[in-house]
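Hello Y.,

Per our agreement to keep a running log of every chain we model this quarter, I'm adding this entry. I've kept the format consistent with earlier entries: sequence first, then predicted structure.
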Amino acid sequence: MARRERLGILLASILLVAASARGGEPTLADAIRTAAGAVKPAVVSIEIQGRPVPGGQPGFQFIVPAPGQGEEGARQFEFHWPPGVEPPQDFVVPKIGQFPGFQGFPAFGRQGNEGSGLMVDVQGDRGLVAAPESLVAHAQTVKVKLADGRQLAAKVLGTDKLTGIACLEVRGPNLAAAKAGKATELQVGDFVAAVGGPATGNVVTLGIVGAKDRPGVGEQAGTRLIQTDALVTEAMAGGPLINLKGEVVGMTCLSMARPMRGRDLAGVLPIEAVVATVGLLAREGKIARGYLGVQFAPVPPDAKEQLKLGHGVQVGMVIPNSPAARAGIQTGDILLEYGGQAIADTDAFRAQVAATRPGTRVPVRLLRAGQQMAVEVTVGEQPGEAVVVPPQPVPPEGGEKLPLGLTVQPLTPALANQFGFRVQEKGVLVTHVDPQSPAAKARPGAVQEGDLIKEIARKPVTSVTDAQRILKEVLDAKAKSTVLLLRNKETTQYVVVDLPQ
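Predicted structure for the entry above:
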């Protein structure tokens, strides 16, 4: 099409939109605002604390100077050996001078402690939140911020590396679940919008569906993703992708959400997979995925031509004592069918195996030395790191109420042992927090059940009587807010609580 014709079509489209706007008909902008507003109550922000540095034995640290910026521009890097890997005895820490022109390593993985999430199911005061697995895995504390400003403690029910999803549980009144659409009905070219959590200001970016059923990469190999050119930042990853009806069609993936170079495509996990994964994690704490114990390689082009193959994958290596080894699969075999279905490529086959329940006996048709043969393999369970959620201590019932929406009790030796405090610790234990109280809206984080109040208004608290007396003094002084010093088994922090007027 000639350039003049393209410009004419573009101008006609602009004039049509402008005419529709003048006539009072809904515009694209109206549709976006309405759709984003419909999903906003279910989009949350995730904040974590205390995530350890991944890796095994400490390796080495070094500092890279930034040219022309002096010490202030220097960056420190830390290397850890992978778990189970011993450093070689003759290993020598490399010097920066050995790498001419070295300017520092590019950032990789998640750098911050915040992300977005999506409330996918609500039953009464219990909500299930889909969040990025790489953000919350191994975090010591996880908090969820709602669109109405509330901040709730979250419990990690389980995580799944393949889909990149963690399932969080929160409790509170008036929780809102997202309305799920059907990712299967999306068409390439459809308008979609990505929405970030409250910490991003519920930012909205617009794009189109660029591709469907694309294979995931890295740890998400085996999943099938939607791709969109809607801008997705790290803080938005984990939030929803919506259609213009306000229905959620997917969850943006962290592994594809990196600092953008122009308009990179973002990966989106279809909402059907999100809902199914969250449901399994909530019930079982993990997802048991199928495992064969082979490494795959594409069938060489010359072998395809010689054997007239239109599909299949070649076995590059068989792991000893694996399900594949026990079934008699050998290195060099070309696998043609799995469970009666033709194997299209490596990514599709990996997804087929992962979706098989461990313990299932599956027929596999393969090609060995030009001859077809069939074997039966009993699928194993994919090895991985299952998330074990320790039992949470249950605060005792009863206690004395404070005018901040708190119920507290003296810290007895038995309660100190139960909640991880020293027996000689001083303070009063929070046993209940009213969800609508000033304590629940404390800054920078809500007071939680199981917190130990050490100070009120900078004065030490050693008993319930102390807490009541100090609060009365603060209220009598007509103060607008006060400061609490809270301690739990992970952290000690000050929070600001607005006082009832």
